[in-house]
Amino acid sequence: MFVLASKSKARAAMLAGAGIRTELVAADIDERALDETWSAAGFGPAEVARLLAETKAKTVSLQMPGRIVIGADQTLALGTQRFSKPATVAAARAQLLSFRGRIHHLHSAVALARDGELTFATVTSATMHVRKFSDGFLEAYLADMGDEVLKSVGCYQFEGLGIQLFDRVEGDYFTILGMPLLPLLAALRKQDLVPS
């Protein structure tokens, strides 16, 4: 059984759907502080996602000797503006309004580590074209979503009601959900960790 360095039920479900059994162990790191430090140092959103995924995997793997640990993270950028998970529904409303009629990018990263050593890392990106939704749609969406809107950086679950926010998307489905699953599965096969 692998270890997923996360509390993300969506990522665990993705892995389970692919036949990868995991134990969830959240990494004890300050993601926001690391994100701010790396961003201030000039790292772009895709690089920050990769660094966070690597840090999660390495941190948890040091606590669990001999275990293969999967770390994953996702960042969102609208032009040069970066976004984090909103703290309140009002913040989610403002964030969604800033996305309306515009294009943002999701950068999803995944990493593998054992005993503090990184064995694989990659990042993939998706381009998200948000439609010019009405104010009425937005209010109904927020009411339907409730606190779920606070659980993702984009204020949406693409596999649910969030799909209604978009005109078009470019990129891999799993990247949008928060983890580049196909490259991860290829890496697991290459390392003889799952049957090839």
From TrEMBL:
It holds the Pfam family Maf. InterPro entries: ITPase-like_fam, Maf-like. The keyword Lipoprotein does not apply. The active site is at D73. Keywords: Cytoplasm, Hydrolase, Nucleotide metabolism. Its EC number is 3.6.1.9. SUPFAM superfamilies: ITPase-like (SSF52972). One of its GO terms (biological process) is nucleotide metabolic process. GO terms for molecular function: nucleoside triphosphate diphosphatase activity. It is an enzyme of class 3 (hydrolase). It catalyses: a ribonucleoside 5'-triphosphate + H2O = a ribonucleoside 5'-phosphate + diphosphate + H(+); a 2'-deoxyribonucleoside 5'-triphosphate + H2O = a 2'-deoxyribonucleoside 5'-phosphate + diphosphate + H(+). Nucleoside triphosphate pyrophosphatase. May have a dual role in cell division arrest and in preventing the incorporation of modified nucleotides into cellular nucleic acids. Belongs to the Maf family. This is Nucleoside triphosphate pyrophosphatase. It comes from Phreatobacter stygius.
